[in-house]
Design brief:
64% of the residues lie in helices and 0% in strands. It has 294 residues and is mainly α. It has 2 domains: 212 residues, Hypothetical protein af1432 (Orthogonal Bundle), CATH 1.10.3210; 76 residues, no CATH class. It is globular, with a radius of gyration of 19 Å. It binds fe (ii) ion (FE2) (2 copies). One fe (ii) ion (FE2) binds next to helix 6.
Protein backbone atom coordinates (compact mmCIF):
# COMPACT_ATOMS: atom_id res chain seq x y z
CA UNK A 1 0.00 0.00 0.00
CA UNK A 2 1.47 3.37 -0.85
CA UNK A 3 1.24 6.27 1.57
CA UNK A 4 0.03 9.01 -0.75
CA UNK A 5 -3.31 9.30 1.00
CA UNK A 6 -2.65 8.00 4.52
CA UNK A 7 -3.33 10.21 7.51
CA UNK A 8 -6.38 11.77 9.02
CA UNK A 9 -8.61 13.76 6.72
CA UNK A 10 -6.77 12.57 3.63
CA UNK A 11 -9.58 10.59 2.10
CA UNK A 12 -11.47 13.15 0.01
CA UNK A 13 -11.54 13.17 -3.76
CA UNK A 14 -9.01 16.06 -3.94
CA UNK A 15 -6.57 14.17 -1.74
CA UNK A 16 -6.90 11.05 -3.85
CA UNK A 17 -6.46 13.02 -7.05
CA UNK A 18 -3.35 14.74 -5.69
CA UNK A 19 -2.01 11.31 -4.69
CA UNK A 20 -2.75 9.84 -8.12
CA UNK A 21 -0.99 12.75 -9.86
CA UNK A 22 2.07 12.25 -7.63
CA UNK A 23 2.00 8.52 -8.38
CA UNK A 24 1.88 9.25 -12.14
CA UNK A 25 4.85 11.62 -11.75
CA UNK A 26 6.91 9.05 -9.93
CA UNK A 27 5.77 6.01 -11.93
CA UNK A 28 9.02 4.43 -13.16
CA UNK A 29 9.80 5.15 -16.77
CA UNK A 30 10.68 2.30 -19.09
CA UNK A 31 14.05 0.73 -18.19
CA UNK A 32 16.76 3.06 -19.57
CA UNK A 33 17.87 0.48 -22.09
CA UNK A 34 14.31 0.27 -23.46
CA UNK A 35 13.99 4.07 -23.60
CA UNK A 36 17.28 4.33 -25.46
CA UNK A 37 15.99 1.90 -28.11
CA UNK A 38 12.72 3.82 -28.36
CA UNK A 39 14.67 7.09 -28.82
CA UNK A 40 16.68 5.44 -31.56
CA UNK A 41 13.49 4.25 -33.28
CA UNK A 42 12.31 7.86 -33.42
CA UNK A 43 15.67 9.13 -34.71
CA UNK A 44 15.45 9.74 -38.48
CA UNK A 45 19.21 9.20 -38.80
CA UNK A 46 19.17 5.76 -37.19
CA UNK A 47 19.12 2.71 -39.43
CA UNK A 48 18.58 -0.98 -38.83
CA UNK A 49 22.28 -1.59 -38.35
CA UNK A 50 22.69 1.05 -35.62
CA UNK A 51 19.56 -0.24 -33.90
CA UNK A 52 20.76 -3.86 -34.06
CA UNK A 53 24.12 -2.74 -32.63
CA UNK A 54 22.34 -1.20 -29.63
CA UNK A 55 19.89 -4.08 -29.07
CA UNK A 56 22.58 -6.72 -29.04
CA UNK A 57 24.04 -5.30 -25.82
CA UNK A 58 21.02 -6.68 -24.03
CA UNK A 59 21.00 -10.49 -24.30
CA UNK A 60 17.51 -10.76 -22.76
CA UNK A 61 16.04 -8.35 -25.31
CA UNK A 62 17.90 -10.07 -28.17
CA UNK A 63 16.51 -13.45 -27.09
CA UNK A 64 13.00 -12.01 -26.79
CA UNK A 65 13.13 -10.42 -30.23
CA UNK A 66 14.26 -13.69 -31.79
CA UNK A 67 11.62 -15.72 -29.93
CA UNK A 68 8.86 -13.28 -30.84
CA UNK A 69 9.95 -13.00 -34.47
CA UNK A 70 9.74 -16.77 -34.68
CA UNK A 71 6.30 -16.92 -33.03
CA UNK A 72 2.99 -17.38 -34.82
CA UNK A 73 1.81 -13.87 -33.93
CA UNK A 74 4.51 -12.37 -36.12
CA UNK A 75 3.83 -14.76 -38.97
CA UNK A 76 7.11 -16.70 -38.93
CA UNK A 77 7.59 -18.75 -42.11
CA UNK A 78 11.10 -19.96 -41.54
CA UNK A 79 13.44 -19.93 -38.56
CA UNK A 80 15.19 -16.59 -38.08
CA UNK A 81 18.46 -16.80 -36.17
CA UNK A 82 20.14 -13.43 -36.63
CA UNK A 83 19.11 -10.28 -34.84
CA UNK A 84 19.64 -8.12 -37.89
CA UNK A 85 17.46 -10.40 -40.04
CA UNK A 86 14.81 -10.38 -37.31
CA UNK A 87 14.76 -6.58 -37.27
CA UNK A 88 14.63 -6.34 -41.08
CA UNK A 89 11.80 -8.90 -41.09
CA UNK A 90 9.86 -7.06 -38.41
CA UNK A 91 10.40 -3.52 -39.56
CA UNK A 92 10.91 -0.68 -37.15
CA UNK A 93 7.29 -0.28 -36.13
CA UNK A 94 6.92 -3.89 -35.05
CA UNK A 95 10.26 -3.62 -33.31
CA UNK A 96 8.72 -0.76 -31.32
CA UNK A 97 5.89 -3.13 -30.30
CA UNK A 98 8.35 -5.75 -29.15
CA UNK A 99 10.58 -3.38 -27.24
CA UNK A 100 7.58 -1.87 -25.44
CA UNK A 101 6.16 -5.34 -24.73
CA UNK A 102 9.45 -6.54 -23.29
CA UNK A 103 9.78 -3.32 -21.26
CA UNK A 104 6.34 -3.37 -19.65
CA UNK A 105 5.22 -6.98 -19.48
CA UNK A 106 7.07 -7.91 -16.27
CA UNK A 107 5.31 -5.12 -14.39
CA UNK A 108 1.95 -6.54 -15.42
CA UNK A 109 2.56 -9.88 -13.75
CA UNK A 110 2.08 -8.70 -10.17
CA UNK A 111 -1.26 -9.28 -8.45
CA UNK A 112 -3.60 -6.27 -8.20
CA UNK A 113 -5.82 -6.91 -5.16
CA UNK A 114 -7.82 -3.67 -5.64
CA UNK A 115 -8.97 -4.91 -9.05
CA UNK A 116 -9.16 -8.52 -7.81
CA UNK A 117 -6.63 -9.65 -10.38
CA UNK A 118 -4.28 -12.48 -9.42
CA UNK A 119 -0.65 -12.67 -10.52
CA UNK A 120 -0.33 -12.68 -14.34
CA UNK A 121 -4.03 -11.84 -14.90
CA UNK A 122 -3.43 -8.24 -16.01
CA UNK A 123 -0.74 -9.49 -18.40
CA UNK A 124 -3.07 -12.16 -19.88
CA UNK A 125 -5.85 -9.61 -20.28
CA UNK A 126 -3.49 -7.08 -21.90
CA UNK A 127 -1.89 -9.59 -24.28
CA UNK A 128 -5.36 -10.85 -25.24
CA UNK A 129 -6.49 -7.28 -26.00
CA UNK A 130 -3.27 -6.63 -27.96
CA UNK A 131 -3.60 -9.71 -30.16
CA UNK A 132 -7.37 -9.25 -30.59
CA UNK A 133 -6.85 -5.58 -31.60
CA UNK A 134 -4.40 -6.62 -34.30
CA UNK A 135 -6.69 -9.47 -35.45
CA UNK A 136 -9.78 -7.22 -35.56
CA UNK A 137 -7.89 -4.75 -37.69
CA UNK A 138 -7.08 -7.53 -40.17
CA UNK A 139 -10.59 -9.05 -40.16
CA UNK A 140 -12.26 -5.69 -40.74
CA UNK A 141 -9.83 -4.81 -43.53
CA UNK A 142 -9.07 -1.55 -41.82
CA UNK A 143 -5.77 -0.10 -42.97
CA UNK A 144 -3.53 -2.23 -40.77
CA UNK A 145 -2.31 0.17 -38.18
CA UNK A 146 0.97 -0.79 -36.60
CA UNK A 147 0.02 0.87 -33.33
CA UNK A 148 -2.92 -1.44 -32.60
CA UNK A 149 -1.04 -4.22 -30.87
CA UNK A 150 0.72 -1.76 -28.57
CA UNK A 151 -2.49 0.22 -27.98
CA UNK A 152 -4.22 -3.00 -26.87
CA UNK A 153 -1.30 -4.01 -24.68
CA UNK A 154 -1.21 -0.70 -22.81
CA UNK A 155 -4.94 0.14 -22.51
CA UNK A 156 -5.20 -0.80 -18.79
CA UNK A 157 -1.73 0.44 -17.79
CA UNK A 158 -3.39 2.88 -15.35
CA UNK A 159 -4.53 -0.05 -13.18
CA UNK A 160 -0.92 -0.48 -12.03
CA UNK A 161 -1.12 2.97 -10.43
CA UNK A 162 -4.73 3.03 -9.31
CA UNK A 163 -4.78 -0.39 -7.63
CA UNK A 164 -3.86 0.85 -4.12
CA UNK A 165 -6.43 3.63 -4.35
CA UNK A 166 -9.15 1.25 -5.56
CA UNK A 167 -8.29 -1.16 -2.76
CA UNK A 168 -8.74 1.64 -0.22
CA UNK A 169 -12.20 2.59 -1.55
CA UNK A 170 -13.40 -0.79 -2.79
CA UNK A 171 -16.63 -0.82 -0.78
CA UNK A 172 -17.59 2.66 -1.90
CA UNK A 173 -16.80 1.91 -5.57
CA UNK A 174 -18.79 -1.34 -5.51
CA UNK A 175 -21.73 0.42 -3.92
CA UNK A 176 -21.82 2.99 -6.73
CA UNK A 177 -21.66 0.21 -9.31
CA UNK A 178 -24.24 -2.08 -7.71
CA UNK A 179 -26.70 0.43 -6.26
CA UNK A 180 -26.33 3.36 -8.63
CA UNK A 181 -25.68 1.41 -11.82
CA UNK A 182 -22.42 3.22 -12.63
CA UNK A 183 -19.73 1.59 -14.72
CA UNK A 184 -16.59 0.90 -12.68
CA UNK A 185 -14.46 3.51 -14.45
CA UNK A 186 -17.11 6.19 -13.91
CA UNK A 187 -17.18 5.25 -10.22
CA UNK A 188 -13.38 5.63 -10.12
CA UNK A 189 -13.66 9.18 -11.45
CA UNK A 190 -16.47 9.91 -8.99
CA UNK A 191 -14.61 8.66 -5.90
CA UNK A 192 -10.92 9.08 -6.75
CA UNK A 193 -11.05 12.01 -9.17
CA UNK A 194 -9.52 10.02 -12.04
CA UNK A 195 -10.21 6.68 -13.74
CA UNK A 196 -7.60 4.04 -14.59
CA UNK A 197 -8.18 4.95 -18.26
CA UNK A 198 -7.18 8.60 -17.78
CA UNK A 199 -4.36 7.62 -15.42
CA UNK A 200 -2.84 5.29 -18.03
CA UNK A 201 -3.17 7.96 -20.71
CA UNK A 202 -1.30 10.45 -18.52
CA UNK A 203 1.57 7.98 -18.05
CA UNK A 204 1.84 7.45 -21.81
CA UNK A 205 1.85 11.21 -22.43
CA UNK A 206 4.60 11.52 -19.81
CA UNK A 207 6.60 8.85 -21.65
CA UNK A 208 6.23 10.79 -24.93
CA UNK A 209 4.57 7.81 -26.59
CA UNK A 210 2.58 8.32 -29.83
CA UNK A 211 -0.74 10.10 -29.31
CA UNK A 212 -2.72 7.15 -30.69
CA UNK A 213 -1.64 5.12 -27.65
CA UNK A 214 -2.69 7.69 -25.06
CA UNK A 215 -6.02 8.24 -26.90
CA UNK A 216 -6.72 4.47 -26.85
CA UNK A 217 -5.94 4.27 -23.13
CA UNK A 218 -8.00 7.38 -22.29
CA UNK A 219 -11.16 6.36 -24.18
CA UNK A 220 -11.13 2.56 -24.21
CA UNK A 221 -14.32 2.44 -22.11
CA UNK A 222 -16.04 5.30 -23.99
CA UNK A 223 -14.79 5.27 -27.59
CA UNK A 224 -17.67 7.51 -28.68
CA UNK A 225 -16.04 10.47 -26.88
CA UNK A 226 -12.62 10.13 -28.53
CA UNK A 227 -11.74 13.16 -30.62
CA UNK A 228 -8.85 11.61 -32.50
CA UNK A 229 -7.63 8.17 -33.61
CA UNK A 230 -11.22 6.94 -33.37
CA UNK A 231 -10.68 3.72 -35.35
CA UNK A 232 -7.89 2.67 -33.01
CA UNK A 233 -9.88 3.57 -29.90
CA UNK A 234 -12.97 1.66 -31.11
CA UNK A 235 -10.95 -1.44 -32.00
CA UNK A 236 -9.21 -1.48 -28.60
CA UNK A 237 -12.63 -1.09 -26.94
CA UNK A 238 -14.04 -4.10 -28.82
CA UNK A 239 -10.88 -6.16 -28.14
CA UNK A 240 -11.17 -5.31 -24.45
CA UNK A 241 -14.86 -6.33 -24.41
CA UNK A 242 -13.94 -9.55 -26.17
CA UNK A 243 -11.31 -10.34 -23.52
CA UNK A 244 -13.98 -9.91 -20.84
CA UNK A 245 -16.52 -12.01 -22.69
CA UNK A 246 -13.90 -14.78 -22.95
CA UNK A 247 -13.26 -14.44 -19.20
CA UNK A 248 -9.64 -13.30 -19.57
CA UNK A 249 -8.57 -11.13 -16.62
CA UNK A 250 -12.06 -9.96 -15.62
CA UNK A 251 -11.42 -8.96 -12.01
CA UNK A 252 -13.72 -6.54 -10.24
CA UNK A 253 -14.74 -4.37 -13.20
CA UNK A 254 -15.46 -6.98 -15.84
CA UNK A 255 -19.11 -7.60 -15.03
CA UNK A 256 -20.32 -4.08 -15.74
CA UNK A 257 -18.65 -3.68 -19.11
CA UNK A 258 -20.78 -1.53 -21.39
CA UNK A 259 -20.27 -2.29 -25.04
CA UNK A 260 -20.46 0.84 -27.18
CA UNK A 261 -23.16 0.34 -29.82
CA UNK A 262 -21.67 3.27 -31.74
CA UNK A 263 -18.37 1.41 -32.02
CA UNK A 264 -20.13 -1.82 -33.09
CA UNK A 265 -22.15 0.04 -35.74
CA UNK A 266 -19.33 2.22 -37.05
CA UNK A 267 -17.03 -0.75 -37.45
CA UNK A 268 -19.85 -2.79 -39.04
CA UNK A 269 -19.06 -5.66 -36.67
CA UNK A 270 -20.81 -8.97 -37.13
CA UNK A 271 -21.13 -11.80 -34.64
CA UNK A 272 -19.20 -14.15 -36.95
CA UNK A 273 -16.30 -11.68 -37.13
CA UNK A 274 -16.10 -11.56 -33.36
CA UNK A 275 -16.15 -15.36 -33.15
CA UNK A 276 -13.43 -15.63 -35.78
CA UNK A 277 -11.26 -13.01 -34.05
CA UNK A 278 -11.72 -14.73 -30.68
CA UNK A 279 -10.54 -18.09 -32.06
CA UNK A 280 -7.56 -16.53 -33.89
CA UNK A 281 -6.61 -14.64 -30.73
CA UNK A 282 -6.78 -17.72 -28.55
CA UNK A 283 -4.42 -19.66 -30.79
CA UNK A 284 -1.87 -16.84 -31.02
CA UNK A 285 -1.81 -15.38 -27.55
CA UNK A 286 -0.71 -18.37 -25.49
CA UNK A 287 2.76 -18.60 -27.03
CA UNK A 288 3.20 -14.85 -26.86
CA UNK A 289 2.15 -14.69 -23.22
CA UNK A 290 4.68 -17.40 -22.30
CA UNK A 291 7.48 -15.45 -23.98
CA UNK A 292 6.51 -12.16 -22.34
CA UNK A 293 6.30 -13.74 -18.89
CA UNK A 294 9.91 -14.80 -19.46
FE1 LIG B 1 -10.09 -0.63 -18.59
FE1 LIG C 1 -9.22 -3.92 -20.12
Amino acid sequence: MNNYYSGPGASGKEDYLAGILRAIDTFPSMPSFVSSIIDLLHDPNANIQTIAERVKFDPGMTANILKLTNSAQFGAQHRIASLQEAIVRLGLRQLFQLVVSAGISKRMTRPLPGYELRADELLSHSVWAAVASAELCKALHINAHDMLFTAGLLHDLGKLILDDFVQNEKGHLQELVQLNGMTFDTAETEVLGMSHAETGAQVLIQWNFPEALSAAAAWHHHPEYAESHKDIVMIVHIADALAYSEGVGCGIDGMQYELSTEAVNQLGLKKETLEYVASQTLSKMQQLEQILKG
